[in-house]
Amino acid sequence: MAECGASGSGSSGDSLDKSITLPPDEIFRNLENAKRFAIDIGGSLTKLAYYSTVQHKVAKVRSFDHSGKDTEQDHEPPYEISVQEEVTARLHFVKFENTYIEACLDFIKDHLVNTETKVIQATGGGAYKFKDLIEEKLQLKVDKEDVMTCLIKGCNFVLKNIPHEAFVYQKDSDPEFRFQTNHPNIFPYLLVNIGSGVSIVKVETEDRFEWIGGSSIGGGTFWGLGALLTKTKKFDELLQLASRGQHTNVDMLVQDIYGGAHETLGLSGNLIASSFGKSATADQEFSKEDMAKSLLHMISNDIGQLACLYARLHCLDRVYFGGFFIRGHPVTMRTITYSINFFSKGEVQALFLRHEGYLGAIGAFLKGAEQDNPNQYSWGENYAGSSGLMSSSPELCPTQRARSGTFDLLEMDRLERPLVNLPLLLDPSSYVPDTVDLTDDALARKYWLTCFEEALDGVVKRAVASQPGSVDAAERAEKFRQKYWNKLQTLRHQPFAYGTLTVRSLLDTREHCLNEFNFPDPYSKVKQKDNGVALKCFQRVVSALDALDWEERQLALVKGLLAGNVFDWGAKAVSDVLESDPQFGFEEAKKKLQDNSGVDVILGVFPFVRELLSRGTEVILACNSGPALNDVTYSESLIVAERIAAMDPVIHSALREERLLLVQTGSSSPCLDLSRLDKGLAVLVRERGADLVVIEGMGRAVHTNYHAALCCESLKLAVIKNSWLAERLGGQLFSVIFKYEVPAE
What we know:
Blueprint: H1 16-19, H2 24-27, E1 34-41, E2 45-62, E3 80-97, H3 101-111, E4 119-123, H4 126-129, H5 131-138, E5 141-144, H6 147-161, E6 166-169, E7 177-179, E8 189-194, E9 198-203, E10 209-215, H7 219-230, H8 235-244, E11 252-253, H9 254-258, E12 272-274, H10 288-313, E13 318-322, H11 330-344, E14 349-353, H12 359-368, E15 379-381, H13 401-404, E16 408-414, E17 419-420, H14 442-454, H15 456-465, H16 473-493, H17 503-516, H18 524-546, H19 550-563, H20 572-580, H21 586-592, H22 601-614, E18 619-623, H23 634-645, H24 649-656, E19 660-664, E20 677-678, H25 679-688, E21 692-696, H26 698-703, E22 713-719, H27 723-728, E23 736-741
Parallel strand pairs: 1-4, 4-5, 8-13, 13-14, 18-19, 21-22
Antiparallel strand pairs: 1-2, 2-3, 3-16, 6-7, 6-14, 8-9, 9-10, 11-12, 15-16, 17-20, 22-23
Helix pairs in contact: 3-5, 6-12, 7-10, 8-10, 10-11, 14-16, 15-16, 16-17, 19-22, 23-24
């Protein structure tokens, strides 16, 4: 993070309240439920890690108990909904200047209620310097961990759990960050850690790594020589000087030595031939800015060439750079990238990490939590509680950002089940879930950010309506509005803040913010009512389908499969229709659409599934693990299937004989990332030898996976419920996507 270590404001702040606009409990969140700690103290920054249990509300569904009743009532909903408390695990990481360490430790001490351990894992050079202070303040024994082991563990963790963690830096691009899709196998790679010196480590597996080289010329060299040359003692001020300097005033270039003859050597005239070469012969004084820039280039080029040589020697093409020397500083990343590209002729890639500043703290925490085996779980970044790349927390006042950027936050939630690749992806290493990169596409970015802003009032209204018995629902909904609005404004100015910006990430951020303020499923009542109405129509729809001949029935099934997809409260064009005409139903949906299209689980998906079952096909029906808009969830699908089975012998026998299996996707989003699916689903797909994948819905089949290549046949179906997107794709509102693909031989 470039700004999180800015030193200028630290000297005046001897308490948290003086230095930031956010209250301390917004920085050290959920501290009262903290169970375990780790800390990484560097030369200027402290990174604190802690694990907490988070209590939040979840919407649970279950069938009504009809024992003792003759029949269920016609007006009775198909299932009951209850909101229950659930406890989940969360990792918190907070980064701040060492200036504030005592005040932060005091705040933590005052708010600690119960920890499961009497030990705090510590790494970094400052673990020795501040050992006594930590033990005195927190009453926890400091257990020092090896710095390099912690860095490697932290690096492995973020590469596995944060999809857009790594990026390349491209100087002339807008924006300059290009995020990489995580390779399914992150090993082997080279980690170049640039602290005071340089350590170069080859990482081969989770637990096997080797220090293969290094250099004494690193960040400490830049700091030390920079201080001698410029009389500037602060590292970040040196970087600021360098960003304003012109190195060619100090450095001797190839063209300065060879004149025009450099072209015969195949060299660019602008290459540096000798760092500081002009200072030996010139009588003039050089500016601090120019000297700092020359020094930064000299050290960055040296490190880049060294890293490149080691990468080539060990046949590695991925090199990750970390350490306090990087700090997200553009000039540093640009110079290292140029050096790697130049010396490797483009064969080795310089990669940087969004959360490189946290690697040591994450690794120290994992070392202390080994008995809990945290690596057996999958984790996900919680956008609601995390600061973005090169940004201060978006909740802060703009006028205070320079100062409040001192604190930087990352939160990660433990997911209920491990997530893995869909085994049917043709090439997992090149799979990109999202169809449009809003980071790249300025026009699309402007449209979708505005779209989400305009939809915010409706989401707030729906959230309040979902909890009619709650006295504070309106107040919590207003807090949700403010938080999500602030996130959207951050993304307008820094679209790269949370990795590649996509429609999926905007939807996920909204869900995270809703959960933050205890709105687990704002559409639960809508779904309950709609499912009840649809169940009453099921037998009539199926009877009508059975009366058709084969060809007519296939067309009708596809129309039905598409029909319920119209009922999407997340699409403004649809919600406008649904709000103005409450009687708008399944048949009206068919008539409304271009070419009669639409889909929903009971009147669309289940008749389609029933047809496949009748042909002898085994079916795995995968639904969202958690709620997102009005998509059916796995737990809801179980009840719906049970109710349909009671009416339909085909579904009944298929469930009993396990020819129809209902599973969860591992997702809580209207979109779908096929590289992060529930492990149980992946195992089932492999065991049953699935040879056709049907993906339905605008989020799953258009916003994501439109270009997904599978190694089996696939069918992607959706109704375009957004006029801007329809126009982009060359169609009209409510046009149909019906994309059948066969893999190339």
